[in-house]
Specification:
321 residues, alpha+beta, 3 domains, 13-stranded mixed sheet, 10 helices, 18 strands, 31% helix
């Protein structure tokens, strides 16, 4: 890593790719971290002696620069013996605007919200892939920190996490922290309805309840639901929970009201239920293709459920009778 690249980072002018490259370089060796800290220390000192540095750097003979640094920072110069970065830093005195460490950058989160009626998939800087369902919100750093990979989720998403035993991947939700080392899993977290569930396709998950910090471990094929402040864990009968990534909605285990809430997000429509009792879904299993439209989906349910509906296209409202 060139000293000029580090200077560019310290000023806050590095691109996302350059920041990622710096993080990888720091993680590669403790010596790299030591070198970075040395350069950062001298960089910070130039803030204090900026005017004096400017006068000295203007000298035509570089030996004055070396003498000045040796007088001011003898310990640092000894530590950086054999490295030309000391002189380069002086002439980089213009890089004084911003100082940002890797950890500071990793604490700055980018927010992504998927509009109703749409789905999205992204690849994070560590190579992990995330599929986001309609209405989901993901907060993630541009560059992950040096100790863990943490994102925040509201709504439903499926993760395919890049394996890295030294940097756990954590999905933070209102109910639980989901910690993984390398795995595929689905998480649905709706704070408004106090609903949380996760289905593990591959690997190992650790769920930690946010309030009590109690935890439970899931293995491949397990699913967990958050009920009354604790986790109920069992074997998943199937992996219908992730069929939404293929543009499908599963009716298995769904009440009519739950299914209507999913329809609202998937089809970007408001559904009002104007009846005293909820219809019973007659299907024990089955999937509805989202691309066929909301009217088709409701007509499919009508085969075994006793209800009618009207669709106000102008106001984008469906009323269930």
């Amino acid at each position: 890593m060139k000293s000029t690249d580090i200077l560019k980072y310290l000023e806050g002018k590095s691109s996302d790719a350059e920041k990622e490259k710096l993080v990888e370089w720091l993680d590669a060796s403790p010596e790299h971290v030591k070198e970075f800290e040395d350069i950062r220390f001298v960089f910070e000192m130039t803030k204090i002696y900026d005017q004096e540095l400017g006068e000295i750097a203007a000298e035509p003979n570089g030996k004055f620069v070396k003498v000045w640094l040796a007088e001011r920072f003898p310990r640092v110069i000894r530590r950086m013996a054999g490295v030309a970065a000391a002189v380069a830093l002086v002439f980089g005195a213009g890089y004084l605007a911003h100082l940002r460490t890797v950890d500071q950058i990793s604490s700055q989160l980018t927010s992504l919200t998927v509009p109703a009626g749409q789905r999205l998939n992204i690849t994070l800087t560590d190579g992990s892939r995330v599929w986001l369902n309609s209405g989901a919100r993901l907060e993630y750093p541009t560059v992950f920190g040096r100790h863990e990979r943490m994102v925040k989720l509201t709504g439903e998403a499926m993760f395919e996490v890049e394996h890295d035993t030294e940097h756990p991947f954590i999905v933070r939700t209102f109910a639980s922290d989901v910690e993984v080392l390398g795995t595929r899993f689905n998480v649905a977290a709706d704070e408004e309805s106090q609903s949380f569930s996760t289905t593990l396709l591959e690997g190992v998950l650790r769920l930690t309840e946010r309030r009590t910090r109690t935890g439970v471990v899931l293995n491949s094929g397990d699913e967990a639901h958050w009920l009354n402040g604790s986790f109920a864990v069992g074997k998943a009968r199937d992996f219908d929970a992730v069929c939404w990534t293929e543009g499908l909605i599963s009716v298995r285990g769904q009440s009519f009201e739950e299914l209507m809430r999913k329809f609202e997000k998937a089809y970007n429509v408001r559904i009002e239920i104007a009846r005293r009792t909820m219809p019973v879904i007659g299907f024990e299993s089955g999937k509805i293709r989202i691309s066929d439209g909301i009217d088709h989906a409701l007509r499919v349910l009508q085969y075994t459920s006793d209800f009618t509906f009207t669709h106000d296209l102008k106001n984008n409202v469906i009323t269930i009778h």
